[in-house]
Amino acid sequence: MTVLAWRLGILVGFFAVWEAVAAPLNPLFYIRPSSLPGALLGMWRVPDLPPLGEHVWLTLQEIAGAYVLAVAAGLWLGFLLGLRRTVGRIYEPLLAALYAVPSVVWYPSLMLFFGLGSASKIAFGVLLGFFPIVLSVLAGIRQVPATLVTVAQSMGARPFTVFRKVMLPAMASTMVGGLRAGLALSVVGVLVGEILGSRAGIGYVINYAYGLMMTREYAVLALLAAAAVLALDTAGALVEARVKRWAG
Amino acid sequence: MTAPGAAIRIRNVSHHFGEEGDPQRVVALRDATLEVARGELLCLIGPSGCGKSTLLNIAGGLVAPSEGTVEIGETRVRGPLPREVAYVFQESALFPWSTVAENVKLGMLFQGVPEAEREARAESALEAVGLAEFAQHFPDQLSGGMRQRAALARALSLQTEILLMDEPFGALDEQTRLLMGEWLVGIRRRARKAVVFVTHSLQEAIALSDRIVVMTARPGRIKDVLDVTLPFPRDLNAPEVTELRAKLWEQVREESLKAMGTLP
Amino acid sequence: MGRLAVLACQAATLAALVLAWHVAVRTGLADPLFVPAPDAVATVLATTAREALPRLGDTLLKALCGYALAVGLGVAGGLLLGSRRLVHAVAMPYVVAAYGVPKILVLPWIALILGLGTGTAVLTATLFAVFPILLMVAAGVRDVDPTLVTAAVSVGATRGQVSRKVLLPAVLPSVLAGMRVGIVFAMLGVLLAEMFAGTRGMGFLMQRMAMAFKASELFAATLIVSILSIVVVLSLEHLNQRLSRWR
Q1: Out of A10, A30, A90, whose CB is closest to C9?
Q2: Which residue, A191, B137, B166, B264, is most buried by CB atoms nearer than 10 A?
Q3: pTM
Q4: ipTM of this complex
Q5: Could you tell me the residue ranges of all domains in chain A?
Q6: pLDDT digit string (tens) for B24-40?
């Protein structure tokens, strides 16, 4: 019970401090939490803001597109590097080197090549999202117990059956973790892409509000986006727990 | 598969790991020749690293020998023979995400046995090992001994002529181990398969086998073959057993010391 | 496959990619406005490098400042989080939530208050880098084998001695792992801040090149930054291995 009390206390304390610090200062710069609910209600009626519904829908589509491609690319590359030993030995270090580069350096080039439209956001989302998936496939393959594979082979299972009935279930918990991280990163990629330069989408609206110094509206949007991402990740965590329980 | 008497014929098998010139090259077996008669239980015993598991895997076709041949029935072995050979390993190697029953049916599934027959065979195999009530349990809900019995049921259900067991009771505590040994003897009375059993335990070798093959320290060769003609069930306190154990220990001890790096 | 053969294959693959790139641009498959030819990039490499180097230095400096702050906060926070049960139970959901929220959402506010310069970049770098460090250190502390602590206490170690002689060495690998990850995140934070709201630094330069369609220069700049990052991370790896040798 004390834990819950402490947690609540922290939350309340956080907002109280924020409010107290921001109150005497310029409300334009130092957003007061108490002003936010009002802004939320007013937002749908503000003519200066572009229609939210369309932008949200576009961002969701971009996220979906990026994630699907990231999963496809990640699984394909992960299995290619993991199952073919020689291919893995050659290309894994290259992948590791790529991982050392802060992903955002690719974005200006993507913007140049794909333009300011959705394509660059999807491309960036794929770039960010496929890494954890590849890594989790590689890790998953490595921890499949060799005896299970041997037993299956000794009982007459052919390579594809071994893959389907032994490797995939044994890899399931590791892979689902990677798939979850991949989703989180695809979302980040799309959002960052939109905020750094776009003509539509949630990130664009955030930028727009910010540019017009509509700071309260920006704060509301940012908080809503954050809440949405957290909800998505929680859903992902539930799926992950489910899979882990099944895989034993 | 009607070879006159021999289930497995191993001829001049040698095996090494690693290539010529590789500093980590290991010669596991040197020139092993052995025949396993149909229906007999043969024990492979020897010090650690003497190649008993390697020999077992080569006998079953899981590993291709560097030199020499293996024949099962009349056919030269070139790969796993799931219809002739079934395995039980030290780690029960049950799939943690499947129930005991599903695990037992797995091998038959791979070999295309029709569903009704799968069910029937699995049921009788589980009965034979005494796990019929635990068919719907998951492996992590069972004790070590029960898991090995499930692995044994899986192997039995394949109805192969040959059963290869690599220290199947090695990870169990002594009491369970002794009981499992009795169990195995009981099962063999019903289904007379050729069994090759790798073990460290002299007790186990004497309690279970028709013949005991003693292997030398690495590189493994066949040092001696002892016949055990005592009737089952074996009284482990009988004078013949004590005598046999002494003789066996003398052989094994010598090789174990060599494996450890000191000669007597 | 020997080490040399592997290296050869890697080099061959990279060479093949460059060749394919060259062919694509020459045959018009890729529009030279968006995709510069390899030789075009090579030509501007020197000039771009000269322009980029001071900015890179600026970026790196800001990243290191943010990184240092993040390491300090992350290690201290991680130790606290990992060792005190109550703190862990209470704070963990918030830490995980903060880690899960895309930090770019906060960036506009930071820029609003701290302006378009160094402060924003350093704070963003700290923000990005502190979370992985914190989580890794906390996990490392929780993973310490309790029997080690019991053993130490049973031979008379004081609280301080336990912390120094048992916990610290046991936690060190996690701290180093967190620090390795942190540097990339710190650089990420600075570059992001520069692209969004900066007037100096590499991020700003690259953004400007993209807007001006200076494809060759942008490619060259991207290449330079990538190689720099790889070198930095590899050096840290090497350093880490050197340090771990005494274990």
Answers
A1: A90
A2: A191
A3: 0.81
A4: 0.84
A5: 1-30, 33-247
A6: 788 888 888 999 988 88
